[in-house]
Amino acid sequence: MKPFVHEVRSTRVVFGSGTISQVRAEVERVGGNRVLLLASKRLDDVAQRVGESLGPLLAARFDGAAMHTPVEVTEHALGVLRSNSADCVVAIGGGSTTGLSKALAARTNVPQVIVPTTYSGSEVTAVLGETAEGRKTTRSAPEIRPETVVYDVDLTLSLPVELSVTSAVNALAHAVEALYSPQSEPITDSIALDAVARISRGLRALAADPSDVDTRADLLTGAWLAGTCLGSVGMSLHHKICHTLGGSFGLPHAETHTVVLPHVMAYNAKAVPEVMERIAGALGVPDAPAGVFDLVESVGGPTSLRQLDFPLEDLPLAVELSTSRVYQNPREVTGEGVAALLSDAWHGKRPASRVPDLGGLTDEVVASFARTPDPRVRSLLTDLVRRLHSFATTNDLTQAEWQAAVDFLTRTGQISSDVRQEFVLLSDTLGLSSAVDALTNSRTPDSTPSAVLGPFYVDGPPVVESGADLAEGIAGIPLWADILVTDPAGVPLADAVVDVWQADDDGFYDIQLPDLDGPVLRARFRTGADGRFAFWSILPSAYPIPADGPVGEMLRATGRHQYRAPHLHFMISAPGHQKLITQLFVAGGDHLDSDTVFGVKDDLVVDFVPTTGPTPDGRVVDGGWRRLDFAFRLARTTGS
Q1: Which of 10, 118, 603, 611 has its CA 20 to 30 A from that of 341?
Q2: Using one digit for the tens of pLDDT, what is the confidence trace for 25-45?
Q3: Nearest 5°: phi and psi at 199?
Q4: CA-to-CA distance for 481 and 355, rounded, in angstroms?
Q5: 337: helix, strand or coil
């Protein structure tokens, strides 16, 4: 168990399309009467719209925000704020404008309403990074956190793709570092993984249609979630290096984050392998560091510090500044390690992956299904291939393991026959049969629950009359079953066809006993006008499934037992109603909580009542016998 502390720190978030119209209401909500509007000249149109909506509340505008929040710019803006007696700041733009707003709040405690136009994510944090005398430092305080953030997806629709990419990867870095932070905890972890998934999904879709509202909403939501992570836990090596490169060497903020992130992830990967696996899963790739690098490259983002005009000869100083102070990181920060990291980042070297990138192969196989006439077949094969390839890469499948699996499946097919369905047994013991059963039949809650068919059903069993004896002298405790079949309202269904089958007292079905003369313990009935039929049989016993084949090998290899809970099989059909395949389990029987094919459902566990004395049909029984009374409800078919 990992102990943790989670503190709720709230910023009001207004998210949607056209939400910029709500800025004035949000200003009034925080008590603003005289607004200093921060917006760059690039956003003149948006600033004018907001200014007009503010009306007499607008006191002044400042358009001089700069990257890395230089203190001299903050002092200039502070003078404008004070000279105009502003008591509220509205900031429209990216991380630079948001940073300036925070810097003003840190000095005056002025309330803030932030309107992001990029994917920075910093707008929901109480963290402020400032640059003074060539060094960037960060601090955190409650007054730094903006009171309100207004996210308007419409403002991001025209954001250039190249800026969208670097801004989104900047936000991605917040989520990644949150996952291996010492302060990580379940809520932040969940938010971070959602952010990773949304940002990666949005970036992949961005090139196809940069103005798609859903794609932009995914990216903006991901940025908000990632920023929430940034504001909840401490950051590590990645943010330290990026602050050094930005504050001391003037590199562009988002672009630097984009280049450095995969290399810091590779540096930390061996220290937090489980975190990297979770990130890889959210990204949908086999290896997280290489996956981020490939994602950036695929969408046209920068992949080297050389592209950002960072001089190679400045690397030693960058290493010195990045390692000058001790700070949290999952792997020990050393000068040698950071030097190698920054060298790889400068050269744009793809992080070494523990498995090859199979994305191209997977896409090639999926593309081969493009002409499949049946769209359902195409969809199933596409998803199957992607999941199989992902399974192979995620588990680093070896040739020997793959060959063993092929041999296993080959033997499964070879042992199968008309009387033994080893593949069905494999599906049963893996829980797949029960999963498909639940997906197929759980949507009819007004009917009796279904259960798996099992491998021992035989079509066309002997047709018998109500009251027949299925056991025909086979040893076992006599059982009288009185069965009713109705519709969902309880109306009896006449002439319903009911197949019944079960194993003998030793756990064998008739088709497993070649010396047996004809079918036993299986039959087909038709219900009477009252929806009923009855029969004699024997009390079902727990029994082992066949274990002399590949399925038995799997059970032994995994330490599982091979027993099924005692049950009777039923297959019931009636015109205008859905076919019901189910089982009735003996209450108090063995293995109800560990049925090896995962077939037991609570509503199907029923009493097989111990009884003595006269029988319903006058049959003479020595000693005790059991009685089963049960009503099956069949769901109606669509339109009936």
Answers
A1: 118
A2: 999 999 999 999 999 999 999
A3: -65, -45
A4: 59
A5: helix
